[in-house]
Write a structure and sequence with these properties.
Number of strands: 0
Distance between the termini: 43 Å
Helix content: over 70%
Shape: flat
Strand content: under 5%
Number of helices: 3
């Protein structure tokens, strides 16, 4: 990952780096790796995340359809 520092503005470059890391999910990955997660717990968590994503997509799809009609 690369961030360009322009006009010696390190603060702006640091914000850009943090935003890129956030988008890539690095912070979330670090948080998950802080402790050992049993494979069964990992499966349960991933299944719950998938359900949450599916519901969110469905909500957005319904909202788009009802808004355009």
């Amino acid at each position: 990952m690369q961030v360009v520092v322009r006009d010696n503005n390190v603060d702006q470059a640091l914000r850009a780096l943090k935003k890129k890391l956030q988008r890539e999910g690095v912070f979330r990955e670090m948080k998950l790796r802080n402790y050992y997660e049993k494979p069964s717990e990992k499966r349960v968590r991933q299944k719950a995340e998938a359900v949450r994503r599916a519901r969110k997509l469905e909500r957005k799809r319904l909202q788009r359809e009802s808004g355009s009609v």
